[in-house]
């Protein structure tokens, strides 16, 4: 069996590798090259060195979007994971209707981000209109918390499923032994359950962190960066720079922003993975 697998592995691996190369690796390399260029079309490309990258950090809208995205990521990652873990704890207690509750909490994750954004825009506008204040004319704070609510509503159920899987793998013998030794429920949670579900925490933290930092569709449909681009996140800022601004220089700057964005997400994700994996209990 193993010999057959080794003999025919190119048949299974090659199509995926070709698709991955064509769909990701080559466009990625080409995008890095274009970030050092000034161009209007791909047939008229002029290399300008690091000029685009210098322009990136001189763009006040990009700097604002970066810090807005960073704050959003911190708040959403903490809230989503805390709430998802708390719900998972409750739903692993054997209460009646557990499967129904799991389904209800998970369902928002099945709805596309654009659709979710417009749904919540209608809900929030309907509520705020009663006070004479449409959502998109409010301050940055209202837009920020609107995005937090939307992101949490969509992601909590998905993370909850992962935490439930982790909690169900915690050995009942360990919990029982801790209680026999006189541990309280809080001590059992802190010293037994949380260390044992650290792999789940690693996965959920990684997913929420990266999804939050590169949020685009919900940002577009809920606030569209309003008011005055104060709720514009990095992905939308890059999109607008590349497609909405006229002039050959802006496409190169947009590409440079995309490369910076990629590097930031990778660095943050690696730091998070290193920090959480170091806390995992080795089996």
Can you walk me through this structure?
The chain is an all-alpha fold and about 280 residues long. About 75% of the residues lie in helices and about 0% in strands. It contains 12 helices and 2 strands, in the order H-E-E-H-H-H-H-H-H-H-H-H-H-H. The protein has helices at about 1-35, 50-60, 60-90, 100-105, 115-130, 140-170, 170-180, 185-195, 200-215, 215-220, 235-245, 250-275; strands at about 35-40, 45. The protein has a two-stranded antiparallel ribbon with strand order 1-2. Helix 4 crosses helix 6 (about 140-170) and helix 9 runs antiparallel to helix 12. The protein is globular. The two termini are about 30 Å apart. The model has no long low-confidence stretch (mean pLDDT about 80).
């Amino acid at each position: 069996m193993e010999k057959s697998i080794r003999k025919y592995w190119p048949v299974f691996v090659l199509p995926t590798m070709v698709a991955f190369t064509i769909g990701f690796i080559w466009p990625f390399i080409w995008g890095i090259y274009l970030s050092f260029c000034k161009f209007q079309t791909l047939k008229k490309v002029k290399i300008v060195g690091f000029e685009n990258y210098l322009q990136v950090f001189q763009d006040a809208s990009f700097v604002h979007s970066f810090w807005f995205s960073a704050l959003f990521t911190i708040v959403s990652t903490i809230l989503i994971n805390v709430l998802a873990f708390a719900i998972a704890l409750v739903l692993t207690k054997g209460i009646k209707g557990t499967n129904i509750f799991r389904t209800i909490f998970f369902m928002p994750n099945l709805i596309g981000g654009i659709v979710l954004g417009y749904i919540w825009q209608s809900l929030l506008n309907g509520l705020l209109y009663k006070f004479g204040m449409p959502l998109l004319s409010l301050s940055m704070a209202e837009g920020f918390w609107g995005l937090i609510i939307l992101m949490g509503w969509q992601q909590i159920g998905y993370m909850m499923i992962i935490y439930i899987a982790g909690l169900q793998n915690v050995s009942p013998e360990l919990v029982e032994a801790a209680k026999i030794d006189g541990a309280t429920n809080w001590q059992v949670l802190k010293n037994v359950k949380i260390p044992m579900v650290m792999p789940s925490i690693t996965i959920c933290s990684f997913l929420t962190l990266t999804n939050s930092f590169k949020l685009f569709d919900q940002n577009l449909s809920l606030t569209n960066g309003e008011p005055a681009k104060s709720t514009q996140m990095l992905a939308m800022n890059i999109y607008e720079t590349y497609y909405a601004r006229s002039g050959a220089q802006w496409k190169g700057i947009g590409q440079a922003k995309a490369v910076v964005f990629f590097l930031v997400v990778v660095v943050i994700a690696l730091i998070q993975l290193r920090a959480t994996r170091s806390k995992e209990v080795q089996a």
